[in-house]
Amino acid sequence: MKKLFFAVWLGIAPLCGYGATVDSASSQLPDWMYVVQPGDTIIGVSLRYVKHPQQNWPAIQRLNRVANPRAIPPGTRLRIPANLLRQTAGKVTLQSVTGAVAYRVGVQAAWQAGRQGDVLPAGAEIKTGHNGFAMLVLANGSAVRLQADTVLQLDRLAEYAGGAMADTRLQLQNGRVHIEDNPQHRSDQYLRVITPTAQAVVRGTDFRAAASDGDAQDETLDGRVDLSAGGQRVVVAKGMGAVAHGNQPPGKAVQLLPAPDLSQIPGQFEQFPLHITLPVLDHAQALYAELYAAERPDTELMGKQIDNGVLAIADLPNGNYVLHVRGVDEQGLQGYDAKHDFSVLARPFPPIKTYPAPDQVVRTARPAFTWSAVLNVGASHIQVARDADFQQLLVDQQTQSTTWTPVHDLPEGALFWRVSSIDQQPGPWGQATKFVYKAAPDAPDLSKNVLQFKGNVLFGALPAPQDGNIYRISLARDPDMKQPIVTNLNSASGQFSIAYPGSGTYYLGVAQIDTGDGTAGPLAIQKLEAPRPYELLWVLTPLIPFL
Fold first, then answer.
1. N-term to C-term CA, the chain
2. What is the chain's Cα-based Rg?
3. What angle do CA 335, 305, 93 make, to 5 degrees?
4. In 3-state terms, the chain is what percent helix, strand and coil (to 5)?
5. Cα–Cα distance between 506 and 525 in angstroms, integer?
6. Regarding predicted confidence, which is higher, 4 or 478?
7. Which of 26-35, 54-63, 428-437, 479-488 is least confident?
8. What's the CA gap between 358 and 364, in Å, rounded?
9. Which of the four pLDDT bands, split at 50, 70 and 90, describes residue 2?
10. Which of 132, 144, 51, 48 is nearest to 92 (CA)?
11. How far apart are CA 479 and CA 484, in angstroms?
């Protein structure tokens, strides 16, 4: 089976053959180029960097055609074959871990959970779960980011001449890695990434490699990749990507998609779940999103492909975050990242408002606002305003209760209210709720009520009720209206009649009722004396209301 071979070579020197026996790995490396310092000798350099210095220094002298091994001009570049250099085993540090990450040292060893700071030797195998992410850091500072569902083996970690030269070989068995190689731009640092499909040589510092189902792909963000498979090669320059399917020749390199425009995404979110609408990117079949905490840019919190244009995030702690988004083309190649900084301020969660409900009509000038309790939150902050932006505040109050009644009458019309929770710090406001305050009907003016007894009937005549209202009339024997004789007598015009109740003292109760919602205004009570039968022809003048 062909293999995809990504090799990052910086500080390349020509390959040369030597009579000495070399191992298969070091024979693939260029010669190490050592710059002579004042006072250096061939023997001294060999003692510091070469294995078996007494045996090998003459070969180095012959190779470099040095006439006098004890007098070498400073600045001279000495070529030393890698197989002659002293070699030590390198290590890799597990810099960050998110979710399920495990590793083992040897195929017979048990898997163990990866933890930040673990040091992995050559031969170790590391894997990430479905929601697992990890970042490895090599001795020279190279960063290898593993996406979810990735299996990577640290096949070779070799350092030569005390770390002056490094040879690292990684086997990407499945999944996706993003490698930022040799950030310090040190010479003689060689990194190879091998996958099970094709072969490529990479000269650059920033690229992505992926392997899945017999296919392999490269996305060159900086540098150059020579991708070979099926006996053919394609050059993948900076800003290009290519795919190799099985043992077939690689496809033509295509331009990576540009970074999308994230400027329309809000800078702060206060409600969960988050639903972030991502921009449309020309020629993209999908988008890929990654999430990092702003203070930990090396720790990936989330990575997922978005097919419907909306990134949903169920929950996040309060804090600052960086969102990376890139396009995915029809071949599955991922383009350049766009980055967007945003913050989350969602805790403590706002309470659930219970009264007034959205668009509810409130008929009292001082309604009792109520909301639910929030676990482990002891205080709330309520605001009532004339406008949805809460620039014209009517109420701005903190309370340890879950209810609040204004101490002043609210104005009539459309109003808005919102509540937040207060813990160690104020939480975000809940969504604003619009309600309408419409004053209850006024109390009738019974001083204008004209009462007359005609025959066995009591007639009344009030001014017409307010628009949209009717009068509701009752008659009782007591001022508390607990002994009613007549109840729920309605009048839309103000005129009414009641059968003669018999002589004695009575109390007439009248209230205006809103026909829209049945809201009753204050009850006005009028005391009256019913005449004896021989007085029924009397016409009663307006009586003094009884309050």
1. 103
2. 43
3. 75
4. 5, 50, 45
5. 10
6. 478
7. 26-35
8. 16
9. very low
10. 144
11. 10
pLDDT band of residue 58 (cuts 50, 70, 90) is: very high
Element of type H or E holding 92: strand 91-98
Sign (positive or negative) of CA dihedral 380, 386, 389, 390: negative
Phi, psi at 82, each rounded to 5°:
-60, -35
**Residue matched to tokens 């929770």:** 421
Assigned token pair, 111: 């898997």
Cα 382 to Cα 359: distance, rounded to the nearest angstrom: 18
For a pLDDT cut of 70, what percent of the chain falls above it? 91
Task: Give the 3-state secondary structure of residue 513.
Answer: strand
Q: What's the predicted TM-score (pTM) here?
A: 0.73
How do strand 504-514 and strand 112-113 relate by DSSP bridges?
unpaired
Task: List, as one string, the DSSP characters of 374-435.
Answer: -TT--EEEEEEESSTTS-SEEEEEEESSSEE--SSPPPSEEEEEEEEEESSSB-PPPPPEEE
Nearest CA among 303, 349, 345 for reference residue 326: 303
Identify the sign of the CA torsion 346, 351, 355, 357: positive
Predicted local confidence at residue 469, as pLDDT: 95
Burial label for 3, CB within 10 Å (0-12, 13-18, 19+), is middle
Nearest to 116 by CA among 140, 93, 100, 90: 93
For residues 148 and 131, the answer to whether their CB atoms sit within 8 Å is yes
